[in-house]
Amino acid sequence: MVKLTIKQKVVLEAIEWYIKEYGVSPTIKDLAELTNTSTHPTHEKVLKLEELGVISTQNGKARTIKVLISLEEIENAEH
C-alpha cells in the first residue's frame, strides 16, 4: 500500500472533505486555502498524490480530482 507524508495526508483529507461538502472536487486554490499553504506547494502535493496513484486528475482541467484510494484505506493498511 501507499505510504504518504503527513502533508500529503492533509491534502488528501482536504480533497475528500471538499468533495463530501460541496459535491465537486476542489481547485488547487481551494486546497491551498484549506491547508493554509500557497498554491505552488499544494499543486506539487497534488501531482505527487497522482503519481502515487492515490488520486487522478484530467491535466489542465479544473475540478477533476478523483480519489482512487481513500485516506481511511491508507491508514488502515498502515496498521
Give a structural overview.
With 79 residues, the chain is mainly alpha-helical. The chain has helices at residues 6-22, 28-35, 39-51, 71-78, and strands at 55-56, 66-67. A two-stranded antiparallel ribbon has the order 1-2. Helix 1 (6-22) crosses helix 3.
Provide a short characterization of the protein structure.
This protein is mainly α and 79 residues long. Helices cover 58% and strands 5% of the residues.
Q: Which sequence of strands runs across the widest sheet? A: 1-2
Morphology call: globular
- Helix segment tally: 4
Number of strands: 2
Distance between the termini: 11 Å
Radius of gyration, taken over Cα atoms and rounded to an integer in Å:
12 Å
Main beta-sheet annotation: 2 strands, antiparallel
Q: Helix content range of the residues, please? A: 55-70%
Strand portion: 5-15%
Q: H/E order of the elements?
A: HHHEEH
Mean pLDDT: 95
Instruction: Catalogue the unreliable spans.
Output: none
Structural class: mainly alpha
